[in-house]
Every structure is written in structure tokens, then in C-alpha cells.
Amino acid sequence: MTRSTKRSWVSLGRTVMLILVASMCNLSDCYDPLDPHGNITVTFDIYQYTPDGYMARVTIQNYYQYRHVDKPGWNLGWTWSKNEVIWSMFGAFAIKQGDCSSFKFRTTHSCIKDPVIADLMPETSPVNRSEDCCHGGLLSAWAINPSKSFSSFEIMVGNLEANSTGYAPLNLTLLAPGPGYTCSPVLDTDPTVSLDIGGRRQVQVYRTWKSTCTYSSFLANKTPVCCVSLSTFYSPTITSCPKCSCGCREADKSEVSCIREGYPLLNRDLVSNHDIVECTDHMCPIRVHWHLKNNYMEYWRVKLTVSNYNYNRNYSDWNILVQHPGFSQNSTTYSFNSTVLPTVGLGDEVALFWGIEYYNKELLNSDEDVMGSVTTDIILKKDLDSFTLSNGWAFPRRIYFNGENCEMALPDTFPMLPNDSSSLKTAHYHFLGLLIYLTFKTLVTCFHE
Ligand SMILES: *[C@@H]1O[C@H](CO)[C@@H](O)[C@H](O)[C@H]1NC(C)=O
Ligand SMILES: *[C@@H]1O[C@H](CO)[C@@H](O)[C@H](O)[C@H]1NC(C)=O
Ligand SMILES: *[C@@H]1O[C@H](CO)[C@@H](O)[C@H](O)[C@H]1NC(C)=O
Ligand SMILES: *[C@@H]1O[C@H](CO)[C@@H](O)[C@H](O)[C@H]1NC(C)=O
Ligand SMILES: *[C@@H]1O[C@H](CO)[C@@H](O)[C@H](O)[C@H]1NC(C)=O
Ligand SMILES: *[C@@H]1O[C@H](CO)[C@@H](O)[C@H](O)[C@H]1NC(C)=O
Ligand SMILES: *[C@@H]1O[C@H](CO)[C@@H](O)[C@H](O)[C@H]1NC(C)=O
Ligand SMILES: *[C@@H]1O[C@H](CO)[C@@H](O)[C@H](O)[C@H]1NC(C)=O
């Protein structure tokens, strides 16, 4: 096969893939195949009735394996079914009190028909706290730190008719912290059971309502935030991120502004939350580089580097997800924490990496002098049946940064093995195979569920 026929096959493949994906994926239905059960569950547990309402504990639990709720934290909103008011709240607060003038003789927390609740800071005084509260709205990813993946607050709801058992709130909304989450209706479920008397007695609340919120990056209307570049020990070629992965520098300066590398940030009125990225061909705030470093007899070594091209943002609690069949074997990661996630019938293993406390937990912004980055070496054991340097096998299939899919270099730009290695011809056919495989995978993503 000549180079040009290969090229045309590639572009045909790409077109077919795009058409199929566009036509078969009702975009918001595309869920994440690497975390099919991920969701944020909001639970209302009514544990006491009052003469005119109830007391409830509301818990927000993040079940996403590698998607956390970052600064400035979550906002939870809903619409009351009747004329409920919130008499008091512990462990969180309604951001608006609203018009409580009809309750002259009682202190009220919020009389808004559609309250929006925000979290309190960890240093909040004990009088305003509840159990498991006050994390400043941050929730860790489930696979990284389950003990910090949830938050609770307590509300006293009133102004209902006597003997009411409550009405489930309507139209739950979750900003975590931005848009992108869709919440199911709040429905009755089995009452939450907990243990008492050292685990010997089971107690249950009177009534439990639940809603699950799921994320869609299409709804979040996000441009990609990261891209993947590749290099190898056997070729001087560096495969850079696809051009315009996250935006084009020529395009009208709508949202993203970019500044030249090393440009002194004199005008540092960067207090705004706007991303200010370094001008690159990819224009991504984050670049992940996969360098195939060594090929030993029984092991192979990769250097994984995450670089922050955003001058205006530090990423604390960052995480990187890598899908690669090589992680089915034992591996050692030197400078990041890591775990291999259970996969759900997709074959390739998925490894999750995150920073080590007090060392590289925060991916700092670049400045005039230093590029902000975190890096580690990873040594993987070889499965001699599947390991190969050809056909792009040694490159990752997919990479996510903080749960957002990164733009990958395309297979036709992968670093090539030197010509003298045998049978390039089969390599080309394999390479077409890889393309078809990737197309197939994308489709599976859409069809599942
Ligand atoms: C939410 O996530 C939990 C934990 O993975 C799972 O048990 C539950 O079924 C999920 N809920 C929905 C509606 O998917
Ligand atoms: C803390 O509680 C007191 C009294 O209960 C209340 O006046 C105050 O507004 C609360 N502060 C916050 C931050 O919720
Ligand atoms: C509330 O329930 C109690 C006990 O069932 C009953 O005696 C009382 O009349 C009820 N009150 C109203 C307003 O329905
Ligand atoms: C809930 O949302 C639906 C759809 O957006 C809307 O039609 C309905 O009026 C809302 N209900 C309330 C009580 O806000
Ligand atoms: C990032 O963190 C560093 C060190 O803590 C700090 O000097 C810098 O101002 C932070 N940058 C931003 C954009 O917050
Ligand atoms: C992986 O490593 C652990 C300890 O280093 C060892 O006990 C285990 O047998 C290894 N597994 C494989 C499949 O090599
Ligand atoms: C990360 O690893 C370090 C030691 O390598 C460990 O002490 C720490 O608890 C880990 N952090 C998390 C969040 O698992
Ligand atoms: C490899 O092949 C390319 C084109 O097929 C050729 O230009 C190049 O000189 C070859 N390199 C070697 C080392 O043979």
C-alpha cells in the first residue's frame, strides 16, 4: 500500500467515524463507557416530623470514579411543591433568604420558592454545623478518596398542613460547579437504614427521596480542555497534539485569550476566572505527554507528563485516566498515586493517576520562568503475547484529565518504527484495523444503554 492510499484510507475512515458518531449518538445520551455507573446521588432522609413539616438530612454523594467537584463547589437547587419554607439549616445555607415577611414571629432561613443551597467552609463554627458537613462544596472522586466524596446538611422544613408527610421537591438542579449535570425527578425509595447500638440495632428514617444527577460534557458545552502528544525512544519525531484541539489561535478571540510564551504577565489583573492560555497550535490549557522511554526484556517504561498551559489556574486534586491494555499487567508508578479501575467488558484496562499530597497534588500554573507540570515514570510488566512496538499498540487508547476526554493524536501521525523493522505492510493493515477498532469503540459508547 502506498503512502497516499494509506492517507486516503485514513481520511475515509475518519469521515465514516464522524458520520456514524454524529448520526447515531444523540449526544446527551452518550455516557462515559469507562464509568458507566457514575452519578451524583442526592438523598433526602426525613428523620423527624414536626407539627408543620419535617426535618431532613440531605446527602450529596459523588459516585463518579474520576470526576470530582472542584472549587468553588456545588450549588444544589430545587422548587418546592407547596408553600414550604426552610426554618433553619445546618451544614449549608440557602444563598437567598427571600421575602419572609409573612412569618413575623419566627426566625426563618429561606422563604424562596426555588432555593439554591451552597456548602459552608470547613472552619464554620460548631453552631452551624451538622454531621459530615462543610467541605467548601468540594467532593473527591469516588475512586480516589471515598471518605471525602460526600457531604451532608440538615434542613427543617415547615409551613405545611398539619400531619403532612412532606412533598418531594421538584426540578432538582446541580451545578458542580458549572453546568453539565441533569438530575432525575426526586422519587420515593426504600428508607435509608443505619446501624445503632454498636451495629446491633437497625434504625431507619421515616421517608427517603432520591435523585441521581449525571454529567454530560455536551451539556456543559465545553470545548476540549486537554490533548495528548506522543514520543518514543526509537524515533526523533514528536507527535504533537492535533492542531486546534481546544481552539484555534487565528479564530476570533471570543472566549479563549492566549499570550505568548514567556511573555511577562505585567498586566496581572488575572483575578478574573478566565482561562488565559499560552499560545500554542493546540490551544489547550492541559497537555498530556506519553513518552515511550525504554523497552526492556520483561518490562517497558513510560514517562507520563501533564503540563499546565493555563497561566491563570492551578489544578488541585487533578487526575489522569489512561486506557491501555498494558495495565492488565503489574505496573509501578513512581511519582503519582495510582490504581487500576474495574473495567466493564471493554477489554482494555484503565489506570487512574493522581498527585501525592505535599508533593505534586497541585498542578501549578506556568509563569514567566517555569512550565507548570507534574511527571512520573511508569514501569509495566510485559505480556509477551500482546506487547509490541508496532501499530501504535504502546500508545494510550484514551486519556482523560479530570474526567474530560482529551483530544488524541490520530493514528496516522503516530511515531513510525524505523523502516528496517520487518513487514511494514502488515503494519499498515493493522493500522487500519486499529482505526476500525477505534470507530467501533466510539459506537459502542453510544449504543450502550
Ligand atoms: C448511582 O451510582 C451508584 C454507585 O455506582 C449505583 O449503585 C446506582 O445504581 C447509580 N444510580 C443510577 C440511577 O444509575
Ligand atoms: C449560624 O447560626 C446562627 C444562629 O443559629 C445564625 O444566626 C447564622 O446566620 C448562622 N451562620 C451561617 C453562616 O449559617
Ligand atoms: C393529626 O393526626 C392526629 C393523630 O392521627 C389526629 O388526632 C389529628 O386530628 C390530626 N390533625 C389534623 C389537623 O388532621
Ligand atoms: C420543572 O421543569 C419543567 C421542565 O423544565 C417545567 O415545565 C416545570 O414548570 C418545572 N416545574 C416547576 C415547579 O418549576
Ligand atoms: C497557584 O499556586 C501558587 C503557589 O501556591 C501561587 O503562587 C499562584 O498565585 C497560584 N496561581 C493561581 C492562578 O491561583
Ligand atoms: C504483581 O506484583 C505483586 C507484588 O509485587 C506480586 O505478588 C504479584 O504476583 C504480581 N502479579 C503478577 C501477575 O505478576
Ligand atoms: C497517595 O499515596 C501516598 C503514599 O504514596 C499515601 O500516603 C496517600 O494516602 C495517597 N493518597 C491518596 C489520596 O490515596
Ligand atoms: C524510510 O522510508 C521513507 C519513505 O518510505 C524514506 O524517505 C526514508 O529514507 C526511509 N528511512 C530509512 C532509514 O530507510
Describe this structure as you would to a colleague:
With 449 residues, the protein is mostly beta strands. It folds into two domains: 40-219, Immunoglobulin-like (Sandwich); 223-417, Sandwich (Immunoglobulin-like), CATH 2.60.40.290. It is built from two helices and 28 strands. The strands form seven sheets. Strands 1, 2, 4, 7, 9, 10 and 13 form a seven-stranded antiparallel beta sheet that branches. The protein has a six-stranded mixed beta sheet with strand order 15-14-18-19-26-22, with no helix packed on it. Helix 1 runs parallel beside helix 2. It is elongated, with a radius of gyration of 25 Å. One 2-acetamido-2-deoxy-beta-D-glucopyranose is lined by residues 330, 381. Keywords: Glycoprotein, GPI-anchor, Lipoprotein, Membrane, Signal.
What's a quick, concise take on this entry?
The protein is elongated. Strands 1, 2, 4, 7, 9, 10 and 13 form a seven-stranded antiparallel β-sheet that branches. Strands 15-14-18-19-26-22 form a six-stranded mixed β-sheet, with no helix packed on it.
In the CATH scheme, the class of the largest domain would be Mainly Beta
> How far apart lie the N and C ends?
39 Å
How many helices? 2
Range of helix content: 10-25%
Number of domains: 2
The total beta strand count reads: 28
As a whole number of angstroms, the C-alpha radius of gyration is 25 Å
The fold-level CATH name of the largest domain is Immunoglobulin-like
CATH architectural category of the largest domain: Sandwich
Runs in which pLDDT lies below 50 for 5 or more consecutive residues are 1-7, 10-29, 422-430, 443-449
Overall SS class: mainly beta
Largest sheet: 7 strands, antiparallel
Order of helices and strands: HEEEEEEEEEEEEEEEEEEEEEEEEEEEEH
What best-fitting shape do the alpha-carbon axes yield? elongated
Q: What ligand molecules are bound, each kind once? A: 2-acetamido-2-deoxy-beta-D-glucopyranose
What amount of the residues lies in strands?
A: 25-35%
Mean pLDDT: 85
